[in-house]
Amino acid sequence: MEQIDYVRPRSLTEAYENLGNGKRSVVLAGGTDVIVQLREGRRETDQVVDVKHVPELMALRFLEDGTLEVGAATPCAEIYENPEVQQRLPGLVDSASLIGGIQIQGRASLGGNVCNASPAADTAPTLIALGAVAVIGSKEGTRELPIEEFFVGPGKNAMKDNEILVQLRIPPQPPRSSSFFNRFIPRNEMDIAVANAAARVTLSEDGSTIEDARIAVGAVAPTPLLATRAADALRGKPGNRETFEAAGAAAAELTNPITDMRGSVAQRRHLARVLTIRALEGAYNRAKEGR
Questions:
Q1: Contacts (Cβ under 8 Å, ≥6 apart) of 170
Q2: In terms of CATH architecture, what is 177-289?
Q3: Most CB within 10 Å of its CB: which of 47, 137, 211, 267?
Q4: Domain boundaries, given as residue ranges, for the chain
Q5: 43-60 pLDDT, tens per residue?
Q6: Is the pTM of this model over 0.90?
Q7: What is the CATH topology of the domain spanning 55-170?
Q8: pLDDT tens-digit profile of 175-221?
């Protein structure tokens, strides 16, 4: 059996030093994906860098302007149990509460789900819809990347070998807006989405029309997709079934799915339309209700 070193940095500086020492490294946050991948031989490494003891990576806080900063190693349970997150970002709660079972959610991290870069990741569409930014760090400094640009292919993200995802930053959401995420899975025992979708809807001041929207779909292309044309179909329109149907059709046209054991190309395109409509209805209703 190949020997793997285990290191447990206590600061970002120490984490950067370990990632930049020339060894093949994997970062361990919750470990719910990484440990399985290593055990099954799908990933190889010289060292595991456990970042759960780095304070910046475990922090969860709202800034005065309403920005949410989520340390990349923060467990999903801490996110969806936070009362302020529940109030301000219900779509994020939708996503974080669906990743695995209760035991998994106590370990699995938002950053880990993002870094795994699965096209079907349940947090990705919501983060895209909310306009999140990935803060990436290394010894050379930090850089920021819109979350929709973070995913570059199935299982591949935009980070270099010596970089680490430090936090996910969600900007203040517009007034009179809300968000919603939903997915379709073939059965409860197979907890991977056949397709998923998220939306943020912003209403006009009088609440009669949709002022703005962001829509994202997942598991229907090599990476999660920001559905710009679908959002364009909503602006200035009333929040009714006809409007949402047009946006759903636009989202489906954007997709480039595959057929696999979970679903076919036709099914995934159909689901992209249906789940987009449902996400828009959910976000619209929450915005109308002020939640």
A1: 67, 68, 70, 89, 92, 127, 130, 131, 132, 133
A2: 2-Layer Sandwich (3.30)
A3: 137
A4: 5-50, 55-170, 177-289
A5: 888 899 999 999 999 999
A6: yes
A7: 3.30.465
A8: 999 999 999 998 665 678 999 999 999 999 999 899 999 999 999 99
